[in-house]
Specification:
423 residues, alpha/beta, nine-stranded mixed sheet, four-stranded antiparallel sheet, 11 helices, 26% strand, binds zinc ion
Length: 423
């Protein structure tokens, strides 16, 4: 669909969504009234900026069903995300929502080259988590043979993948890598498998990981993106060109905002991704802040799809630092470090303020093998990291290399940033 026609569809659907939310969800009605808005205030997609944002906290405050826009008799499915803090986030689907979900998942699988002759091994978990059932319905919609094996039980995964001739694998990227290594250890010849592509998501992963999966499994590894609040998987997917993920923007309208000022950023800027659902009935979401960081690209893709593309997610907006007025995400640093084989992804960013000027220092561990090399080589490596970082983040940074295992490890998530500034 060309952009002009797409904008017309988006406008029509936004008007319907806002009406549905305003008349059926007291929360939205109140938030709009506080801003002096009624449904008539929204005439096209260009009016979207007038509307208030919605956050995960709003979903929690209205736990479990407070933001649903239809009576429970219309809800045919409930999913929930396991809340690491507090209550889970609950989402509800009408029959039409399930059909929309199947449609966007069918697009996702088609993007990965799947069709009716494929065998799709769904190794995402089935249950309250949306991964398993999302891929399942999409697979059936395109007429493929779906194998609902769910997660875990690696030996069985390999056996069925081999015996059934699975051609598409759907799971998290880390599990794909684990499976790849288990297949190598199994001693079964790769030629005996028919696997050709994988659709991987639900966790962040790097280009390095992609290369490793593609080499080890000898497949095309496709990045998929979604979140249960918006619909589950099926929000966006890479195509075979692998240059960004096409957003199903006729169903989920994306904006990029500055997470601090909340202003919509100009085309091509990196910032927080915000979605407005355009067709959802059960749980319409208006300007939902995902906290995921990315950038949009409206250039036409070589695959022929006209849908806008988003970059692989860079990280979370909650982690953002402001240094000398520049927004910096620790994940930007991490992504760069992960691309270099000489160093370990163990690092520490130290932010300080000296003479009223913010300073930024990076300590990073060198790989054991590389650390034995000459001092001059280490200095060259240090300079290379510093140059790479400065040119990509646009900030001066002092890089220090440290011996392996010098940076403190902690249980679970390690501490990556120390901010010594006093505000
Ligand atoms: Zn494309």
């Amino acid at each position: 669909m060309e952009r002009e026609e797409l904008n017309r569809v988006q406008s029509e659907r936004l008007i319907e969504t806002v009406e549905r939310a305003y008349f059926n969800v007291p929360y939205y009605r109140q938030k709009m009234q506080e801003k002096g808005l009624g449904p008539e205030s929204i005439r096209s997609i260009n009016d979207l900026g007038k509307l208030p944002y919605t956050t995960k906290q709003d979903l929690r405050d209205n736990y479990p069903f407070g933001l649903f826009a239809v009576p429970m008799s219309e809800i045919v499915r409930i999913h929930a995300s396991s809340g690491t803090t507090g209550k889970p986030t609950v989402v509800g689907y009408t029959r039409t929502d399930i059909s929309t979900w199947s449609e966007v998942m069918a697009r996702t699988l088609t993007c990965a080259g799947a069709g009716r002759n494929d065998f799709i091994q769904v190794a995402y978990g089935y249950g309250l988590f949306t991964g398993g059932l999302g891929l399942h319905y999409g697979g059936e919609k395109i007429g493929a043979s779906v194998i609902p094996i769910s997660g875990g039980n690696t030996l069985r995964q390999i056996q069925l993948m081999h015996d059934f001739g699975s051609t598409i694998l759907a799971c998290t990227p880390s599990y794909a890598l684990y499976l790849a290594e288990a297949i190598e250890e199994s001693g079964i010849n790769r030629e005996e498998f028919r696997l050709k592509a994988g659709v991987f998501g639900a966790e962040p992963w790097t280009e390095n990981m992609r290369r490793e999966i593609e080499e080890k499994l000898k497949i095309k590894a496709i990045d998929i993106y979604g979140l249960s609040e918006v619909i589950g998987p099926g929000v966006a997917s890479e195509c075979m060109v692998q240059r960004g993920l096409h957003i199903n923007e006729d169903h989920f309208y994306p904006e990029i905002i500055d997470p601090v000022t909340l202003e919509v950023l100009p085309e091509g800027s990196t910032g927080e991704l915000v979605f407005t659902t355009l067709t959802k009935e059960g749980l319409p979401l208006i300007r939902y802040r995902t906290r995921d960081l990315t950038r949009l690209n409206r250039e036409r893709c070589n695959c022929g799809r006209t849908l806008v593309r988003m970059d692989k997610c860079l990280g979370r907006s909650d982690d953002m630092l402001i240094i000398r007025g520049v927004n910096l995400f620790p994940s930007q640093v991490e992504t760069l470090l992960l691309e270099m084989s000489e160093i370990k992804p163990h690092y520490l960013l130290i932010v300080d303020r000296v003479n009223n000027l913010d300073t930024l220092e990076l300590k990073v561990e060198v790989d054991e093998e590389f650390f034995l090399d000459k001092i001059s080589q280490l200095e060259a490596l240090r300079q290379k990291i510093q140059d790479n970082l400065e040119s990509s983040i646009g900030l001066g940074i002092k890089v220090t290399l440290v011996e392996p295992k010098m940076i403190e490890r902690s249980e679970g998530k390690s501490k990556r940033v120390i901010d010594k500034r006093k505000f």
